[in-house]
Amino acid sequence: MNHNRPVRPSNALEAVASPPADVLFPLPHIPEGLGAVRRRAARAMEQWCIPSDLADDALLVVSELITNAVVHALPPASLCLSRQRSKAAWAVRIEVTDAGPALRDHGGGSRLPEERGRGSTIVAALSARSGTMTYHGGTTRWAEIQVTTP
């Protein structure tokens, strides 16, 4: 994700004809605020006509990545959803960018060890591709959910 690139604004005619290809959400840095971000992400995928089973997978990936950013990383954090097209398929690309790892773990101390660390496994299982980009001042974790075209 290129954070120097502005999110493309759309005029009313474009919004009716074709929902925006990129949607950017700032993340509140409290776990209680993430439900609203997830609902907004669900609405974006609904506008993009993503099949419900794939949208559910994408929303689980969104949940894992945004929770990781809020619990384990420094603010600010943001979620970017985009649609990307290849010759045979569409992909929903999910990117969560934060300011890098926190010096200490916040909020995970009361969880049992077997309840922790499954997020990356879930993301990898549901995604066609996923990865992490680390750079000066932050980290972006990303995943792509394939939506095959008929």
> If helices are DSSP runs of H or I spanning 4 or more residues, what is the number of helices?
4
Low-confidence runs = 1-19
Gyration radius, to the nearest Å? 16 Å
Approximate helicity band:
25-40%
Strand content: 25-35%
Strand order within the widest sheet? 1-2-3-5-4
The CATH homologous superfamily is called Histidine kinase-like ATPase, C-terminal domain
| Main sheet specs | 5 strands, antiparallel
Mean pLDDT: 79
Number of strand elements: 5
Q: What shape does the CA trace take?
A: globular
Q: How do the SSEs run, as a string of H and E?
A: HEHHEEHEE
Q: Report how far apart the termini are.
A: 28 Å
CATH architecture: 2-Layer Sandwich
Q: What name does CATH use for the topology?
A: Heat Shock Protein 90
Number of self-contained structural domains: 1
Q: What structural category characterises the helix and strand content?
A: alpha+beta
CATH class, named Alpha Beta
GO molecular function: ATP binding; protein serine/threonine kinase activity
Protein name: ATP-binding protein
Keywords: ATP-binding, Kinase, Nucleotide-binding, Serine/threonine-protein kinase, Transferase
Pfam family, one: HATPase_c_2
